[in-house]
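Sample A.
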Amino acid sequence: MNDYEYPLTMTGGHTRQQILAKMHERLSDGRLNHCLRVEETSRVLAKRFNVNVDEAGLTGLLHDYAKEIPVPEYQQVIVREGYGQDLLQYGRGVWHGMVGTWFLQQDLGISDPNVIRAINRHTTGHPDMTDLDMITFVADFIEPDRTLPGEIAARKAAETSLTKATMIELQNTLTYLVDRGALIHPLTFSTFNAFTKRVQD
């Protein structure tokens, strides 16, 4: 395991080991190991595209912090904290980004706005994604254990372009959801349209 450390101002005053201990309480071993791979992939992408490596690494580490929180707990938070009734029709696949940051702030005091924003956006995308947002979005999709054709194509694209890698992921996500007859969050549609324009330009 890598022994990175992050600025305490970015981590709510917690060391990486303290964060990992809390993650171990929240996550299965498989999910935690995925987070560690995304952390590493995010750091690599940040170096490649001249983005703050600590912000990218911490965001990658924490992106799935709330992935396995029970559905009833999510539903209570969505209602109590005023996220809007519409959000209840989606599941943890959306919630662990958009609402997961609430748990990060409550459990660990994570408040770095760039980290919070990137985690918030990593499940739905956002038309105005920054480079850090795209790194989190893409790293989650291309970490080394991802071996499907779309994941491989995005990994190749990410050698030169975060925008193109993000577009490949969006296309794969939409295809996956449509094939399963699943609800698609409006932000994902608007992100796809925005990135279609970015790629064309």
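Sample B, a different protein:
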Amino acid sequence: MGAVLQGSRARDLAIAAVFAALMAVGALFSIPFYPVPLSLQTFFVYLSVLLLRRRAFMSQAIYILMGIAGLPIFSKGMAGYAALLGPTGGFIAGFLLAAVFGGALYGRTAGRRGAAAATVGLCILMVFGTGWAWLTYWLGGNFEGAFLTGVLPFLPGDALKAALAIVVAGRLQRQGIGGYNGKSK
């Protein structure tokens, strides 16, 4: 199966589409909180970065484009630009930024001790930093309120999702799935 993740652009796009679909499924499994729901989306962002590395951005770009096109795949079944302009818009943008920067980092450091943890840590910072900044704007500049409602309650759960993504990715990579057999383009 590892060979399936190597090769053509069509395969890369197909695998990215699978992760985009997983993001959509992750949005369906959400627990309503205000103003940001708890979902499995960040787990799939972290997993995509660890398995797809530099190509992880494609999965997030496809996911966002599907949502903008009107598919109700964002949290709470939202779709279109309204989701990007609402309180969760910064987190959605953070998914893409985490995939770009986390994928680039892991593409250079995979195989080194602590690389997966450092990469997922960067992804957490990207998702929550971008989400926090946008939520602060959305809440009229309430920096503290945005942190207390949109970041702090989610960090323990995301630490668990990050650890699980590292374990799952490691097991899949040992089976030859993901990581492009240690090579990154």
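Observation for Sample B: Confidence is low (pLDDT under 50) at residues 1-5, 181-185.
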